[in-house]
Amino acid sequence: MMNISIKMLKEIKLDNFVVFASLPDMGKVGGLVSEHLIKEFQMERFAEIGIFEKPWVKIEKGLVKPVIDTYDFYVNYENKVIIMTGKEQPQDPNNLINLCLTSFNIIKNIGIPKIIYTSGGYHQPQLAQAPKVYAVSTDKETVIKLKSLGINVFDTEIEVITWFNGVVLGVASEMKFKAIGLFGEITETNEQQPLAAKSVLKVFSILENIAINTDGFEILNVSLPAYDGDSIPLSDTSLLLRNGDFTRARNMGFVLFAVPWSLRFC
């Protein structure tokens, strides 16, 4: 039994288009960015990927139904933009890779993309000003361009970006697609960080010369509560090696700061 499926709602053909593929991560930045672009551009849903990976099923009136996580694709013809997003990250590494590969198969059937973007959160314990955006790319020429535009580029700050919003860049590189990752600074990992998403969208707007209204993020800047003792599933936690220290990644798909090894999970 295959645990991944594709549903095409409409055939799309474009060339020289932009793809923005990001999922909710630390601070929900990746999800907030994708959701805002879908609403801002009034995009049309044209495809869906389904993954059956949850270790439980639903029961409705005595009938068992599998829990399918869906990842949706949207198109805006005017700006030639494709968005891929979902409500959460896959929890199994194999499903993560399959999601990336399946997404790129859908993209290749549309046409040849000009560039692929993703986004996420970059944890900083304190911020003295509006969140900055740090970028990475799959090619040196784009890194030079980013620096020439005054956009911060990760250097020695981090060595690893985990889960979808990182792995999708690696898959893009292997498939010879030009790609950029944009990561906004956040101070809280378990609360929505709309101002970080706003900063990411401003940089995206500059890079693609597309007007994007971000006023709504000021209203969204209301945090969701997190409580001491909240549990984190083992599948949502990883330890990453950076400069001889261990880095703790929560909810996978995050760029994180170094913390002492004494902060173990159990």
Q: Name the poorly predicted regions.
A: 222-266
CATH class: Alpha Beta
Number of β-strand runs: 13
* SSE run: EEHEEEEEHEEHEHEHHEE
Please report which band the strand proportion falls in: under 5%, 5-15%, 15-25%, 25-35%, 35-45% or over 45%: 25-35%
Total of DSSP H or I helical runs spanning 4+ residues: 6
What does this protein look like?
The protein is α/β, with parallel strands linked by helices and 266 residues long. It has a single domain, classed as Rossmann fold, CATH 3.40.50. It has six helices and 13 strands. Helix 1 (29-40) packs across helix 5. It is globular and about 55 Å long.
Compact overview of the structure:
The chain is of the alpha/beta class. It is built from 6 helices and 13 strands.
Topology:
Blueprint: E1 4-8, E2 17-21, H1 29-40, E3 44-51, E4 57-60, E5 63-66, E6 69-76, E7 81-86, H2 93-110, E8 113-123, E9 133-137, H3 140-148, E10 152-153, H4 164-174, E11 179-186, H5 194-208, H6 216-220, E12 237-242, E13 245-250
Parallel strand pairs: 2-7, 2-8, 8-11, 9-10
Antiparallel strand pairs: 1-3, 3-6, 4-5, 6-7, 9-11, 12-13
Helix pairs in contact: 1-5, 2-4
